[in-house]
Structures are given as C-alpha cells and as structure tokens.
Design brief:
Length: 130
C-alpha cells in the first residue's frame, strides 16, 4: 500500500510543539540556504546566534512538560483525499468532535461520496485476526 501522505511534511498541529519547531526549523534552513551563505564570517556568526536562540526556545519547551500531556490534534481530510485513501486501502471515518466510534467508519466509495460535506479521518486499515 503506498503512502499517500509521503510527499507532505508533518502537518502543523495546534497541540503539538514538535510540529511548531519543525516548521520553524524548515523555514530557518531555507533562509540559511538562500540568504546567509556559509563561509562568510558575518553570516556564520548570525546563523550561530539563530541556532543558539532556537536551542533556548526548545529548552524552554522541555521546562514545561504539560505541553506534552495534551492530546494530539486529529488530522482531517477532505472528500477527495478520503476517496483516494479508501481506494488505496485505508480505513475512512467521519470526523466529528465526539470520541470516535466504530460506527463512524465508512465502508464504501458511495458512503464517502455521499458524506462530501464532512471532513474525514484516515487510518491504516488493520485487519483483526480471530
């Protein structure tokens, strides 16, 4: 089964500080590559200061572990992504604010398509053995 999400970076999630840092580091590395060329002492010193500041920020997150205790945000998808995932063998569920229930699973292309006004949760399709 191919991974339909492999061309995408980790999504930025409200309750996941790791994704915040990943997003910022991605932007900083791009900035370094295009705006602060390596080998120039002035730019290298500026990059060192940026990395030091980021290290301090990351350490401050570690000092407040309650951020780690939050439930991760559930990623939701639109109908076209849900249909593609279903075609590739993923389990597709209707997304809603209540705890997920097995009855939320959609078992056919037609069920997903008729629910087009909803968002969907996509999971690996785990076959339970008896």
């Amino acid at each position: 089964m191919s991974d339909i999400f492999s061309n995408k970076q980790s999504p930025l999630l409200a309750n996941d500080p790791e994704t915040w840092m990943e997003t910022i580091w991605d932007a900083l590395h791009s900035f370094r590559e295009h705006q602060l060329p390596e080998g120039d002492d002035q730019y290298d010193e500026q990059w060192d200061d940026i990395c030091t500041a980021m290290a301090w920020i990351e350490e401050s997150f570690e000092a407040f572990p309650e951020a780690e205790k939050r439930e991760p945000e559930i990623q939701t998808y639109n109908v076209s992504t849900a249909l593609k995932a279903y075609a590739e063998g993923y389990a597709v569920y209707i997304a809603h604010p209540l705890p997920q229930d097995p009855d939320d699973r959609l078992w056919s292309y037609d069920e997903i398509k008729s629910s087009k006004d909803h968002l969907f949760v996509i999971k690996e399709n785990v076959v339970e053995s008896e």
